[in-house]
Amino acid sequence: MLKYKTMTKYRTIIYSTVFFLLFLSGCNKSDNSSDSMAGHNSLTVTEQCKPVENKCEIVGANIKLKLQFKATPSYQRLLPVTLEAFDASLESASITMIIDGEEMPATKMKNNGENGWEAQLMTFAKIKKDNIKIRLLVSANKELYSAEFLIQY
Fold this sequence. Notes:
alpha+beta, about 40% strand, Immunoglobulin-like, six-stranded mixed sheet, 12 strands, about 150 residues, six-stranded antiparallel sheet
């Protein structure tokens, strides 16, 4: 039993490392639009993304997501974030907040149930209502999906 737990632990570490490296390869592009992330399936926001109001629907080929902030973003405060998946079972999810062009550390989201994912983002830059972008990278059905989009609140 101990050997199985150890093998599962190492397998999880390896998968997490590979996923993070794939995420970083998408972050190093000079053009920040979601179309520039070659090798990933693009995700787009259906309307204006207002995650504080629970109005941020993100769609792609065979995938539909909803992003929600549990509080209003503010300087040097933890921001609880949830991501809900419809029509697809996510294998992993990672989120990055970009404030005024300054990229916060990427955060791997944790599965909180059937199709829900959550994370706590820490903001280290001055926040205004029009200077926040989200970079989202998810894996579903053994395919990577990515997006970068402005949020409003």
